[in-house]
Amino acid sequence: MTALTLGVLRETAPGERRVALVPDLVHTVDALGIAVLVERGAGAGALFHDESYAEAGADVVPRAEILRHADLLAGVRVPLLGPSHRFRPGQLLIAMLQPTLIPFQIRQWADQGVTAVGLDLVPDGLGAGHPVDALTSQARVSGYRAVLLAAERTRRCLPPWGSSEATFEPVRALVVGAGPAGLQAVDTACRLGALVHAHELRRRARQDATELGAALLDLPGLRPVDDGAALARTLDSELAELRQGLADSLPRFDIVIAALDPPGRPVPVLLTTKAVQAMRPGSVVVDLAVGSADSPGGNVECAEPDTLTLVGDAVTVIGAGNLPAQVPVTASTAYAHNVTALLRHLKRGGPLTIDLSDPVQAAVVATHHGSVLHEPTKRLLLEATAAAGTP
């Protein structure tokens, strides 16, 4: 039986330095009975050179050869192949798809017979999906990088500093939202010596934040909730109270990391420009939620993606962009583990199989056998068809 072939594509998005497979994991894919083709220069942005892939057993070839021969295609982001490119029926594409941003392209892939798998589509609470959950692995890198960005911009050292003659208090940091990015921000800030508080309403996430060393910031009138659905209801009904409570608290902190991005709903604006302007001179706010898949805005009213803004008395607002691309070795390695975990899951010791009765596959397979399976994207397409008046 002819072995399957995985093609690793070079990323084409501006500023993207990650790669979908690292040389150290080529042997893992090969052990699954899948040969590896790597596009020339695919790993250069993360300093994984073509020679390293070749030494690991991969064939380094031009993009045209990968698109022509590979059964499976892996990228970090959706490949930009031009309007004239058509995939072969039966090819399987693995990437962080963000399908609701490209519904018509998803429809086109389905029409071409492509099976598209989104490693960013694992829902909260699906424990079996954790190994393939690239959204979480990349969010952790973002949380780490956000704290470093804040530390670079603040005009104070994060840990307690001084001598027997004079001792200065540590920097006080607030992390809003204790999802994967927020929890990594908590951990990083604590390790750097900051005095860290976290605001989070979900009980499990609150516990995780305290175990990492944060104190909880509780706000008047807001009670802990059990899960993401209850959090969404709270955001719908008590957003004004949450904003006011955070506004009252902000002047106590030197660094704020805003990282509340509830899945499947618009990102809530939690920190108004007026509230940020009232922070102490030299404070730093990093918005990790700005520019997410579900909303163009972020947690901070005046934040813009990939933009540094000064407000108030030298308060710096950093709108996070593609932070994992700034740490490409770690981010690529984490993503490559997600890719190899998916391949193991699809093969399960036998031939590679798409089984939509499996909860993990049902969550991450966006197109298969000519159909769009991702429900939010399917709804967008239906709405577009209805608006156009197509029967």
Automatic annotation (TrEMBL):
Enzyme Commission (EC) number: 7.1.1.1
Domain Alanine dehydrogenase/pyridine nucleotide transhydrogenase N-terminal intervals: 7-142
SMART domains for this protein: AlaDh_PNT_C, AlaDh_PNT_N
Catalytic activity: NAD(+) + NADPH + H(+)(in) = NADH + NADP(+) + H(+)(out)
PROSITE patterns xref list: ALADH_PNT_2
Ranges for domain Alanine dehydrogenase/pyridine nucleotide transhydrogenase NAD(H)-binding: 151-319
Annotated family: Belongs to the AlaDH/PNT family.
Described purpose of this protein according to its UniProt entry: The transhydrogenation between NADH and NADP is coupled to respiration and ATP hydrolysis and functions as a proton pump across the membrane.
Name of the protein described by the UniProt record: proton-translocating NAD(P)(+) transhydrogenase
Organism: Kitasatospora nipponensis
